Amino acid sequence: MSDKNKKITPEEANLQKIISHAKEYGFVFPSSEIYDGLQAVYDYGQNGVELKNNLKQVWWKAMTMLNDNVVGIDAAIFMHPTTWKASGHVDSFNDPMVDNKDSKKRYRVDHLVEAKAYQYEEQGFPDKAVAVVSSMNQMLEKEDFEGLRQLLIDEKIVCQISGTSNWTEVRQFNLMFSTQMGSVAEESDKIYLRPETAQGIFVNFQNVQQTGRMKIPFGIAQIGKAFRNEIVARQFIFRMREFEQMEMQFFCRPGTEMEWYNFWKEKRRNFLLAIGLPAEKLRFHDHEKLAHYANAALDIEFEFPFGFKELEGIHSRSDFDLKQHQEHSKKKQQYFDEEVEDKEKQRYIPYVVETSIGADRLFLAVLSNAYTEEVKINAKGEEAKRILLKLHPAIAPVKVAVFPLIRKDGLPEKAKEVFELLRYDINTVYEERGAIGKNYTRMDLIGTPFCVTIDHQTLEDQTVTLRYRDTAEQIRIPISELHAKIAYEVSLKRVWEKM
Ligand code: ATP
User: φ and ψ at 240, to 5 degrees?
Assistant: First the structure.
């Protein structure tokens, strides 16, 4: 089966629409596209960068401003190589991979099996879906690679390119990118590009606790780039090789971790609802298989165009990470808790509850949820299709667009006055070319929640037309009230009100 003859599923068609829209309207471009792109690496365009910055800002503020006991840091991407020994990434940040001998394509075994399970579910065989995933999990646990290969064959799992199940043996593959630090090759050390931001938080635990005089329980939040040499690069910005994470490690007293795990689980879901993701597209998925040190873990899954998939992870990680760093660095990672009565138990390594979400995955969730196609009957009685992005106003890349109705009679001058009134603290664009209808359409396509039009009446009574994106409703409003009204509608307060 060649790529060309492959049938496109409805899910793939939906994702394709999002990818095309993202490209056409300046949200996401393939990296170095003039050289045909680089697999699983993407660039954010003029509207994409605004949306992504807004998502990062709303997450950052929700974590640090709305919680008395959470502070932020910004650690370097390069870290001492021992960090990754201590964290376990050097030895076990591996994924079992398999190659198809005919197409020479490489796959992650768990992805192939999950796709099969998804197919079973679609066909109405949920029991088979559960059985195949559970067999895989048992084999992964035992590192039974021959068993995994046999499972692929028995389940008739084929390569999408060649259509065959002519698989190589299953092998482990480390996902970390490495490079050299130092100018002289013999002296230089192999270092890694961090595969997660969390370790930058753990190694700064003592710095932040002491300099910030932080009392347990408290959290440290961070936003930053992470790099993984993902083998199966697909599903657009869902799985990238260079991506951004927004993580928070919450340090608490041993024994209280489940209370905090439940606290953050609810809090993080409320955040996702507050920025506009609908409840029916979100679900919790408890991990069946826990890491040996973890006592609870779940994913918050979102219904992407290709089905429910992990958007965010909430993990109760015990004292594993700090203990590992204490052992490898020989520096104590303990906390002295004056509030504990039993003197023997006053000094301890805190337990950690982690919340971890990808900024790019959140971007994809928000974008695909906002993408709306509407068919309405217009004034002439004809069917008119409208495409718009129903983004929450607080995260929309452009908040308001200002247009003069025509390019004469002093309207552009008046419109520029209104633009000046708004632009300094609200992301505003001004446009005097083109017809009003076309300008509204262009703003709908990038999700601008408000448009302001200046017409002849404005010159007489100092009012303007304010158009709402989602309803296309238009109201007249005095210029003197415009700034306050829009500033409120696009403020983060509107998000916090729903949390
Ligand atoms: P997956 O199972 O999808 O590979 P994971 O369980 O390895 O994800 P974590 O290590 O828990 O993911 O990372 C936390 C979050 O970082 C994920 O929930 C996701 O939002 C994001 N993330 C992880 N890997 C990628 C990637 N390759 N591209 C984009 N975002 C990612």
Answer: -115, 165
| Local structure of 95: helix, strand or coil | strand
The CA 358 to ligand 1 mean position distance, Å, reads 6
Q: Which is nearest to 238 in space by CA: 311, 176, 177, 308?
A: 311
CATH topology of domain 10-78+195-366: BirA Bifunctional Protein; domain 2 (3.30.930)
Please state the domain extents for the chain. Answer: 10-78+195-366, 391-496
CA 456 to chain centre: 45
Structure tokens at 247: 């993580």
Which two structure tokens, joined as six digits, stand for 217?
Answer: 């329980």
pLDDT tens for 243-263 read: 999 999 999 999 999 999 999
Q: What are 445-464's pLDDT values in tens digits?
A: 999 999 999 999 999 999 99
Q: What is the DSSP string of 330-378?
A: -----EE-TT-SSGGGSEEPPEEEEEEEEHHHHHHHHHHHHEEEEEEE-
| Closest protein CA for atom 30 of ligand 1 | 358
Cα–Cα distance measured from residue 143 to residue 88, given in angstroms and rounded to the nearest whole number: 17
Give 240 Cα–ligand 1 centroid separation in angstroms: 9
Ligand 1 atom having least distance to the Cα of 362? 20
Tell how far the Cα of 40 is from the centroid of ligand 1, in angstroms.
13
β-pair partners for 302: 282, 309
What number is the average pLDDT over the span 350-378?
Answer: 96
Ligand 1 shell residues, CB under 6 Å: 196, 228, 230, 239-240, 243, 245, 310-313, 356-358, 360-361
**CA 387, CA 396: separation in Å to the nearest integer?**
15
Q: pLDDT tens, 99-117?
A: 888 888 888 899 899 899 9
- Ligand 1, atom nearest to 356 Cα: 14
pLDDT per position as a tens digit, 114-132:
899 989 988 999 899 989 9
Task: Please choose from 111, 177, 196, 243 the residue to mutate so as to test ligand 1's pocket, defined by most ligand atoms within 8 A of CB.
Answer: 243
Q: What is the pTM of this model?
A: 0.88
Q: Tokens at residue 319, please?
A: 């004292």
Domain 391-496 has CATH 3.40.50.800: yes
